[in-house]
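One example copied in:
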Amino acid sequence: MPELIHRDILGLRDALGAWRHRGARIALVPTMGALHEGHLALVAAARAAADIVVTSIFVNPTQFAPHEDLSRYPRDEDGDLAKLRAAGCHLVWLPKVETMYSKGSATFVEVSGVSEEFEGAIRPGHFRGVATVCTKLFLQTGADIAVFGEKDWQQLQVVRRAARDLDMPIHILPVPTVRDADGLGLSSRNRFLTVEERARAGLLYAALSRAATAVAAGCNAAEALAPEDAALRSAGFAPEYLALVEAESMRPMDRATSGVALRIVAAARLGTVRLLDNITVA
């Protein structure tokens, strides 16, 4: 297993304090476990950017809505630790729920604006939980860098905004989405796809790619997205949103505008699995 595993805050701070005393630069990779190659790409990016890599594994209950099944989220502690050891992670932070949220906890971090549409509208309270747990992880580790994947694009913007607005002394480092050969973004939840569903799942990325090409060619959002929404529905997906947005603010956009970075973001259900993805508009 990795060199050091900590489950209590004092041990974590002592270990990191010793490294920091020697002048080490620390990178944090926040995860909820069930690690895959996408997570390991984050660890690799952290190793390239810092001297010490800390990976947290914590299935955060505050980012699950009441109707969402927290117990169904995949867990594989032994497998995760083996992968992190092989990836060169230096420390794994494995707190319990009562460590992260002591009895009577009453403080939460809420980020307005960027958190309100799309995932924020569909999953009320989700981003409050994300912003709160990330703020706690940043404070607990005192990391210089925190590494996040671009697959959860809106989450990345929420965390960036929280860090900026609260003057946290941490750099948020994004890493491009790791994809399977058919374009499906890697996710811990992909394991719940049936064989037949997995064969179709790459169609989501294909739809986003066509829409991005159409927007770049001058189509407005409706012209680019409506045919892809219809195509996904015909293929058995249940799209929840498919939208063109300004990349940083998540503000919906009608068309490409000079000098404005754009993303197409999407969420769609395929069977019991909810797939999230996004793509830049070049």
In short: The chain has a mean pLDDT of 96.
